[in-house]
Amino acid sequence: MSKLAYLGPQGTFCEAALRLLAPDVERLPCANVGAALDAARDGDADGAVVPLENSVEGAITQTLDELAKGRSLHITGEVLLPVEFSLLVRPGTELGQIKRIITHPAAHTQCRGYIERELPGAVVIAGSSTAAAAQEVSVPGSPYDAAISPAIAGEYYGLDAIASDIGDRSDTVTRFIQVSRPGPLPEPTGADRTSLVAFLRDDHPGALLEMLSEFAVRGVNLTRIESRPTGDGIGRYFFHFDLEGHVADARVGEAVSGLHRLCGDLRFLGSYPRADRVATQVKPGTADGDFDEAAQWLGKIRAGLA
Ligand SMILES: O=C(O)C(=O)Cc1ccccc1
User: What is the domain range of residue 150?
Assistant: First the structure.
């Protein structure tokens, strides 16, 4: 049976995502995203499931940064998970007694409205995950009065939900990805996504425009673009791209090769089926057959036959 690492402990949203992606595998809870990815890199697990982005807050930057450095991992699948937050307390705690709340930063930012309205004096402390926060609160004598977590974490750690569905929006969705060590790519399905990390060779006017042009001229639609600091100084950035299509598609393959020529370093993060099954947009003149036909035409020109 294969084993997948995830952001633990038991009861995180990440665990719920893993169960959807791979119901029958062994689960290895890890203390943070970096540890889950390292478990996959080191072979302690066959892969990992980690959060990537949220429909309200955007990227989980720790995941973006961990995927951009260290030994390469490939994304092999994704799932979109609706997330609903509960306020969990030790039995007997009342709302007025809550002064210190612990949760994952991504949960905090999505519950700001509730905290400002109902618990204006409370401070919120960052925990490594929503379930780790619940576990902290469950310890007798814990310095924390409440955790913002999935309801299921209350059942695991013996806490009561003093309030439910406390997110600022009720339709929030988080995208989780499954990664593994590089290997054969998932087959193209016609509704795929490809992820890349691009580091500039040198900083110059139009550098980003040049990269985007590689996609634009071949009709490749982007679904996410993110700049992240390299850490080497103010103004030094690298870029994450998610785009429609599979690297096996001519249009995507050519754009990726073009980007490779432009960039100092281009990291391929995988081609995999989209969770929402939305079919790739193919503009006229950018289908595989169009690229084949153009290559044959060029061959004839070069051979003096046309
Ligand atoms: O801490 C968790 O449960 C996670 O899986 C990370 C997370 C936190 C908040 C929203 C979405 C994902």
Answer: 86-163
Residues 6, 33 within the same domain: yes
- Mean per-residue pLDDT, 181-197: 97
**Ligand 1 pocket, mutate which of 7, 13, 176 (most atoms under 8 A from CB):** 13
The β-bridge relationship of strands 237-244 and 222-229 is antiparallel
Indicate the burial class of 74 (C-beta count within 10 angstroms; 0-12, 13-18, 19 or more).
buried
Ligand 1, closest atom to CA 149? Answer: 3
**Total count of domains within the chain:** 3
pLDDT digits (tens, 9 = 90+) for 73-90: 999 999 999 999 999 999
CA 281 centroid distance within chain:
22
Task: State the CATH number of the domain containing residue 13.
Answer: 3.40.190.10
CA of 104 to the centre of ligand 1 (A): 6
How does DSSP classify residue 31? S
Q: What number does the ligand 1 atom closest to the CA of 153 have?
A: 3
Report ipTM for this prediction: 0.98
Residues 6+ apart with CB under 8 A from 78: 52, 175, 176, 177, 178, 193, 272, 273, 274, 275
Residue 17 three-state SS: helix
Same domain as 97, residue 23: no
Share of the chain above pLDDT 90, in %: 96
Average pLDDT, integer, range 32-53: 98
The answer on 239 and 197 residing in a single domain is yes
Whether the per-residue pLDDT at 160 is higher than 80: the answer is yes
Q: What is the dihedral of CA 154, 12, 100, 167, to 10 degrees?
A: -90
| Nearest CA among 128, 88, 81 for reference residue 111 | 88
Q: Which residues line ligand 1 (CB under 6 A)?
A: 7, 12-14, 51, 54, 83, 104, 106-107, 129-131, 174
Mark whether 9 and 59 lie in a shared domain: yes
